[in-house]
């Protein structure tokens, strides 16, 4: 992603690039050529072209950035006599200077160099080449500069630093936010496949743009009609008289490749693909990947396919490029959905609740633009104060977690997902699935600080609060009702959801007319809200003669505004959001104009809405969150209270443990991996595991396998009495109750007797191998596990050993890197964790030592994706330290992580580094 939000393709240079490189050089200005070569060259010689394009990708690496098949930038390094240092050089097209091409090349060259043992870069730069000097200075590395014979000599180490990572994240954020901003606020829109047939996709989208009051230029493209929607039609995009920022594609899927090529030739910035039909497995996904590849190669972003559309309610834009029947009410909620069907549900829910939005993005199959891009945009958008996302799949959860955590510190982020999101894929979604426990994805969301809900209705329940109310300052809630029974139900719900009922008023009388009832309601609610232990309030009311719901809601809203505290209203038996309104959506497809699959799922072909998408009942001001169910209201408020507590907490800091030798660990891992190939896994023996773990300051208590009793006695003498005797069987080695372990063996005679007895008992189970180990201090057994998941990347799990994890699945999960707060929460999250802090007379254990061990494991897993599995079972945690009794370490050729240390996007719509 370039600085202007467009895309370009970065790849290694090839020998066949010589003609393209020659054309690139010929198009450069004399100044650019002089700054690169320190002299003017009208052309490159055949010898130079051969040297520049034929590299070994080890000591000499060169990368090119291309747009529309033409090279626009070249970056290269050449290793010097010192094998740990390489000289870098860059050459950027005049047209693309200042667009971030140089910084992207530097990031990728540095990553490639680190993989090949290079630790430092150097460069010779002319003093007048300020742009190149700026690239080095702003990269985030510790750059040293000095003058030598009229040239600026630049040197810097290329290991990532906190500052260089922050620089990359900042550049990524600005570019992705800009790319979506250009799509949501285009200066011109062309609807390709615009139709004269009422109800067709092309007609609906074009009409929506025109009737929504879009402030830019609008063009309809139809190969046959001279006029559509009362305006002139153009046969091809090439005939459109002005530039086009956004092209809306509503043509059959077979025509998509040709239309994308036309858009590339016309310089279109982004594509909104309403057309569906890309979810039928092999052929459909192949078409989808080619669509993304062709668009990205020409600088264009893609929303869709099978998108419901884009909406921006900003009066300066007023864009309704969707199949929605009209422009929704303006508000501060940003909405993101994937499938068009879910987009329909969210749109309808907003309509029912009178809830305004700032912008809506329906990503469809999310082949390119995703929720990550949307969050990058909304983070900076002053018109958006809260974000709601319905996610059916994850493409890059590590990146999602990173962005969401930063965003949620300032704006509430509500995420709706089903229990199988990440485990199964919807049609058309070409991303990975997780092999981790299903709770791991929820743990990732919790760690990110988002408000997790299960359904679109729950999303809207929470959105009503965060989009219109201040955040509560605490758990205290005041309850007001005109029914004692309803008040009690409300109080029970509040306590069950973790709220503290600070006030309960159930004697409110609303039966003597609106002129008296409203002041009485206001006075009582003001009194409740004035209490310092009341941080929010919920008002539940039954119907009363002579008063309207609108008036009651208005009175409630005024009280909340005066107090500066969130107030919710529950109108039991009055609000009914389940009755559909006929004709809310009216979209038909026109054979031959748009593919039948361009109709969003959930939109009726007959011209009426599916059940549940309508709106009815009173129209209550969106400034007052109103509900028909007390349970829904309280659950939503409790979720917001938890979020507010998360936002106020100390987030801690990420601290790398002392005594780590990462380079030594990398050498060991590389040496082990050289012994395997393909998808094989290598289980390290005890010595190999101990050597690798020692690089991260982790010591495993030695175990000595033996064949004879004499060998066992010799080992025990060396280790020191008392000792433990264990079977090497993986299922029995920790099971004292099944005879797999004997403890506190104090002398030779006892050891020999236990060996004979254990062999007799274990023979029936087929467990023959035995080992002897020094006794560890007594304490609480725990399990620490780190694995490399295809979707989540490095995943850390923690639990208490035994039935807690084996039978009850009482695990806590987190994704590295972990802050000090993350570590503390991970250790305290399992239900059985109370045993660590002194429980029923048991002494408290050394929590600091346990957190240090987990931090070391998390750091190891974050550094080394090659470690497919690392498990300590058990870890004995005593009052003054920890002892790792057993380590299982398995290595494998790693799948590429979905969040690499360099900015990259998938060129084909699949899960590769940085894919959004």
From the structure above, extract its key features:
25 helices; alpha/beta; ATP_grasp_subdomain_1; seven-stranded mixed sheet; disordered C terminus; flat; 37 strands; GNAT_dom; 916 residues
Helix/strand layout:
Blueprint: E1 9-12, H1 18-26, H2 30-37, H3 46-53, E2 60-67, E3 70-79, E4 85-92, H4 101-115, E5 120-125, H5 130-137, E6 144-148, E7 151-157, H6 162-184, E8 188-192, H7 201-211, E9 217-221, E10 227-228, E11 231-234, E12 246-249, H8 256-266, E13 270-273, H9 282-297, E14 301-303, E15 309-312, E16 319-322, E17 330-337, H10 340-353, E18 357-362, H11 371-380, E19 386-390, H12 397-408, E20 413-416, H13 438-448, E21 451-453, H14 456-466, E22 476-481, H15 484-496, E23 500-505, H16 514-529, E24 536-541, H17 549-563, E25 567-571, E26 626-627, H18 630-648, H19 662-673, E27 681-683, H20 686-694, E28 703-706, H21 709-719, E29 723-727, E30 741-745, H22 748-763, E31 770-774, E32 780-789, E33 793-800, H23 803-806, E34 812-814, H24 820-828, H25 847-863, E35 867-878, E36 881-884, E37 887-892
Parallel strand pairs: 4-5, 8-9, 8-12, 9-11, 12-13, 13-14, 17-18, 17-19, 19-20, 20-21, 22-23, 22-24, 24-25, 25-26
Antiparallel strand pairs: 1-2, 2-3, 3-4, 5-7, 6-7, 10-11, 15-16, 15-18, 27-37, 28-31, 29-30, 29-31, 32-33, 32-35, 33-34, 35-36, 35-37
Helix pairs in contact: 6-11, 8-9, 10-14, 11-12, 12-13, 14-18, 15-18, 16-17, 21-22, 24-25
């Amino acid at each position: 992603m370039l600085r202007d939000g467009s895309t370009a393709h970065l790849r290694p240079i090839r020998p066949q690039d010589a003609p393209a490189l020659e054309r690139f050089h010929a198009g450069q200005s004399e100044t650019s050529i002089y700054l690169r070569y320190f002299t003017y060259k009208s052309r490159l010689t055949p010898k130079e072209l051969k040297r520049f394009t034929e590299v070994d990708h080890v000591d000499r690496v060169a990368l090119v950035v291309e747009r529309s098949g033409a090279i626009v930038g070249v970056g290269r390094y050449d290793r010097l006599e010192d094998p740990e240092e390489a000289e870098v050089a860059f050459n950027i097209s005049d047209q693309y200077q200042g667009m971030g091409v140089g910084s992207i090349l530097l990031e990728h060259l540095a990553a490639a160099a680190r993989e090949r043992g290079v630790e430092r870069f150097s460069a010779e730069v002319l003093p007048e080449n300020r742009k190149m000097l700026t690239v080095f200075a702003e990269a985030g590395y510790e750059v040293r500069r000095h003058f030598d014979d009229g040239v600026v000599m630049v040197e810097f180490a290329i290991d990532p630093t906190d500052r260089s990572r922050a620089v990359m994240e900042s550049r990524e954020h600005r570019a992705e936010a800009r790319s979506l901003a250009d799509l949501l606020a285009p200066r011109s829109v062309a609807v390709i496949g615009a139709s004269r047939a009422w109800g067709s996709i092309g007609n609906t989208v074009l009409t929506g743009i025109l009737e929504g009051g879009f402030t830019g230029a609008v063009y309809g493209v139809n190969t046959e009609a001279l006029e559509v929607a009362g305006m002139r039609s153009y046969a091809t995009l090439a005939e459109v008289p002005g530039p086009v920022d956004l092209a809306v594609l509503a043509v059959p899927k077979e025509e998509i490749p040709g239309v994308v090529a036309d858009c590339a030739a016309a310089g279109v910035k982004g594509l909104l693909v309403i057309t569906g039909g890309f979810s039928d497995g092999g052929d459909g996904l192949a078409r989808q990947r080619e669509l993304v590849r062709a668009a990205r190669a020409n600088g264009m972003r893609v929303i869709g396919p099978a998108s419901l559309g884009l909406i921006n309610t900003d009066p300066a834009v007023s864009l309704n490029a969707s199949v929605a029947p009209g422009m929704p009410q303006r508000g501060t909620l940003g909405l993101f959905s994937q499938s068009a069907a879910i987009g329909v549900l969210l749109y309808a829910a907003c309509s029912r609740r009178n809830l305004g939005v700032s912008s809506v993005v329906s990503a469809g199959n999310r082949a390119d633009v995703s929720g990550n891009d949307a969050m990058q945009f909304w983070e900076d958008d002053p018109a958006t104060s809260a974000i709601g996302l319905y996610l059916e799949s994850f493409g890059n959860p590590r990146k999602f977690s990173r962005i969401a955590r930063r965003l949620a510190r300032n704006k509430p982020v509500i995420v709706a997902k089903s229990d199988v999101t990440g485990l199964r894929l919807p049609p058309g979604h070409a991303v990975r699935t997780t092999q981790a426990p299903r709770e791991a994805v929820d743990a990732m969301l919790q760690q990110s600080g988002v408000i997790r809900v299960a359904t679109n209705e729950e999303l809207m329940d929470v959105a009503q609060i965060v989009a219109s109310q201040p955040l509560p300052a605490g758990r205290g809630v005041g309850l007001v009702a005109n029914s004692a029974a309803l008040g009690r139900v409300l109080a029970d719900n509040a306590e069950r959801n973790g709220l503290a009922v600070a006030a309960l008023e159930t004697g409110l009388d609303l039966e003597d007319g609106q002129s008296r009832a409203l002041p009485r309601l206001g006075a009582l609610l003001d009194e409740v809200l004035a209490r310092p232990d009341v941080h929010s309030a919920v008002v539940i009311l039954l119907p009363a003669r002579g008063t309207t719901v609108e008036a009651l809601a208005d009175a409630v809203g005024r009280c909340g505004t005066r107090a500066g505290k969130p107030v919710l209203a529950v109108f039991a038996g009055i609000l009914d959001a389940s009755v559909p309104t006929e004709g809310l959506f009216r979209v038909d497809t026109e054979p031959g104009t748009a593919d039948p699959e361009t109709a969003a799922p959930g939109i009726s072909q007959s011209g009426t809405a599916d059940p549940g998408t309508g709106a009815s009942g009173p129209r209550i001001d969106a400034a007052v969150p109103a509900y028909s169910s007390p349970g829904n209201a309280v659950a939503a408020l409790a979720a917001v209270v938890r979020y507010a507590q998360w936002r106020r907490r100390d987030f801690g800091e990420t601290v790398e443990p002392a005594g780590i030798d990462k380079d030594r660990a990398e050498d060991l891992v590389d040496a082990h991996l050289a012994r395997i190939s393909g998808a094989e896994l290598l289980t390290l023996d005890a010595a190999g595991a101990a050597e690798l773990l020692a690089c991260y300051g982790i010591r495993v208590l030695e175990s000595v396998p033996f064949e004879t009793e004499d060998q066992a006695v010799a080992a025990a003498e060396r280790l020191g009495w008392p000792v433990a005797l264990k079977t090497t069987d993986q299922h029995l080695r920790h099971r004292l109750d099944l005879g797999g372990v004997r403890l506190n063996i104090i002398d030779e005679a006892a050891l020999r007797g236990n060996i004979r007895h254990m062999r007799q008992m274990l023979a029936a189970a087929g467990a023959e191998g035995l080992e002897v180990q020094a006794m560890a201090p007594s304490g609480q057994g725990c399990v620490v596990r780190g694995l490399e998941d295809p979707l989540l990347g490095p995943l850390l799990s923690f639990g208490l050993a035994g039935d807690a994890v084996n039978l009850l699945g009482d695990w806590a999960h987190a994704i590295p890197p972990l802050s000090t707060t993350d570590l503390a929460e991970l250790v305290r999250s399992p239900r059985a964790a109370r045993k660590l802090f002194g429980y029923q007379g048991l002494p408290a254990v050394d929590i600091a030592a346990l957190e240090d061990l987990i931090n070391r494991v998390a750091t190891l897993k974050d550094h080394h994706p090659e470690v497919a599995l690392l498990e300590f079972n058990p870890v004995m945690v005593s009052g003054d330290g920890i002892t790792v009794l057993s380590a299982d370490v398995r290595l494998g050729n790693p799948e590429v992580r979905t969040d690499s240390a360099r900015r990259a996007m998938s060129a084909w719509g699949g899960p590769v580094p940085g894919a959004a």
